[in-house]
């Protein structure tokens, strides 16, 4: 049985990999009260989540070349700010829950570290009580990385309240050209002399938001005129795809790909305005709906399974970023999904020389876990299409396996 990406997908349109501005973005929907990182007492906007990590490290005023603990399962933008702040990176492994394997961190390593960066993976927040106690005992500052988790309850506390500082990425949850957040429940944030973007950059930020909407045929009623105006091109998306496809394991090239050029600037007007205007309810509710839809597709599938047990309460107090799917033999499936331009990605570009610890799930996740985006600008048809493509590929894979064994 032969198939390929085109046969599975035909000529269907690409699906957006992030929120896209549309008329529906301004609609107000009532949802249960869900906490947000932006509710923390002290906060400062940055240009990105990685810029927020960088600014958090500067706020701590650490000695040069101090060590920062970072998880083995990471996006390169979690490591790049540490190095740019003239600090060293130390790594910790993960438990199957995604929490740090604290017992496996050698005390000699802990004694050299001043900071620990702990993320809430996939937008599914977990209690960091034990992590907080471990850090307090050793005098280590905790940065709670909420890039995937702008909304939610992390066990006994709301997201962001466990860390000395919390960092977040607004552009993962809002249709913004950029923006991150540095926040703290208890620590004051020292003023930062941020550089202002140029007028050209401000205008480009506004245009980019509308251009991206045009690319995905948003703003019904005027979308034809927008498409003509932008000549059916999206420079930002082309640059993103090019950066994603090229495999550059070298640290220098990876740092370049992380694009840290604007970490010391203030965010664009368009980002600030949209962040202040757009309602939150639809963002939360639609992500919960999309996550639940994925869960229904993958509850009992040969060759794949939800990374975590799914229950009715799994997303009741959060707004998931992705649906994490464990795939037994992921490589061919992931490449096919990329060819289909579906909203799926994998954290398989880890920083060079990241260690392999015994009983660490980090390395396994980097290979086996596919992250299926469930943002609010994917509708039920989009989720069905993505899930069905995964199921079709899994079925083909299982048939090939059976053929080999017969």
Primary descriptors:
Aspartate Aminotransferase, domain 1; 14 helices; 406 residues; 13 strands; single chain; globular; seven-stranded mixed sheet; four-stranded antiparallel sheet; alpha/beta; Aspartate Aminotransferase, domain 2
Note down, in words, how this protein is organized.
With 406 residues, this protein is an alpha/beta fold. It has three domains: 5-27 and 279-404, Aspartate Aminotransferase, domain 1 (Alpha-Beta Complex), CATH 3.90.1150; 37-184, Type I PLP-dependent aspartate aminotransferase-like (Major domain) (Aspartate Aminotransferase, domain 2), CATH 3.40.640.10; 199-277, no CATH class. 37% of the residues lie in helices and 14% in strands. It has 14 helices and 13 strands. The strands form three sheets. It has a seven-stranded mixed β-sheet with strand order 1-9-8-5-4-2-3, with helices on both faces. The protein is globular, with a radius of gyration of 21 Å.
In short:
This protein is of the alpha/beta class and 406 residues long. The protein has helices spanning 5-9, 49-59, 76-84, 107-112, 129-138, 199-215, 223-230, 235-245, 251-257, 269-277, 281-297, 331-339, 361-368, 380-404; strands spanning 42-46, 67-71, 88-92, 113-119, 141-145, 153-154, 157-158, 165-169, 180-184, 304-306, 322-327, 344-345, 369-373. It has three domains: 5-27 and 279-404, Aspartate Aminotransferase, domain 1 (Alpha-Beta Complex); 37-184, Type I PLP-dependent aspartate aminotransferase-like (Major domain) (Aspartate Aminotransferase, domain 2); 199-277, no CATH class.
